[in-house]
């Protein structure tokens, strides 16, 4: 291998490593305290996770809601009763799951 080939292979490896970590998906969940929850999705690059699938799933994995984040990477929904998970799904390796906030009346039932 020539020096140029080695340099090119090394540069390509660096680019691929940067690309692999460039799309880490993050989720923020906000209880609006009015019976709604807002979810915000963003990639580690700082770009909004627009059109990423959002799902609400009950403890058995049943889908309660399935939509897409808007162009700002946000979605607001009516808070369901009982336990549920919020799932952002941008494809294999880019799935984030978090327990959804409980309704105030659900907190007193326990």
Descriptive tags:
7 strands; four-stranded antiparallel β-sheet; 110 residues; 2 helices; single chain; globular; alpha+beta; three-stranded antiparallel β-sheet
Major sheet: arrangement of strands: 4-3-6-7
Rg of Cα set:
19 Å
- What is the average of the pLDDT values? 84
Cα(first) to Cα(last) distance is 68 Å
Describe this entry's structure for a reader.
The chain is α+β, with helices and mostly antiparallel strands and 110 residues long. The chain has two helices and seven strands; from the N terminus they run αβββββββα. It has helices spanning 3-21, 104-109; strands at 25-31, 36-43, 53-57, 63-68, 74-78, 85-89, 95-99. A four-stranded antiparallel beta sheet has the order 4-3-6-7, with no helix packed on it. Strands 1-2-5 form a three-stranded antiparallel beta sheet, with no helix packed on it. A hairpin with a 5-residue loop joins β3 and β4 (63-68). The chain is globular and about 70 Å long. The termini are far apart. The relative contact order is 0.19.
How would you briefly describe this protein structure?
This protein is α+β, with helices and mostly antiparallel strands.
Outline the fold blueprint.
Blueprint: H1 3-21, E1 25-31, E2 36-43, E3 53-57, E4 63-68, E5 74-78, E6 85-89, E7 95-99, H2 104-109
Antiparallel strand pairs: 1-2, 2-5, 3-4, 3-6, 6-7
């Amino acid at each position: 291998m020539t020096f140029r080939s080695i340099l090119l292979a090394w540069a390509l490896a660096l680019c691929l490593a940067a690309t692999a970590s460039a799309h880490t998906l993050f989720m923020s969940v906000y209880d609006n305290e009015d019976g709604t929850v807002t979810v915000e999705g963003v990639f580690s690059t700082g770009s909004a996770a627009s059109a990423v699938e959002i799902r609400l799933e009950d403890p058995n994995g049943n889908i309660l809601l399935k939509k897409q984040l808007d162009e700002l990477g946000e979605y607001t929904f009516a808070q369901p009763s009982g336990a549920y998970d919020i799932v952002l799904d941008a494809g294999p390796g880019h799935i984030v799951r978090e327990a959804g906030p409980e309704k105030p009346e659900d907190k007193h039932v326990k």
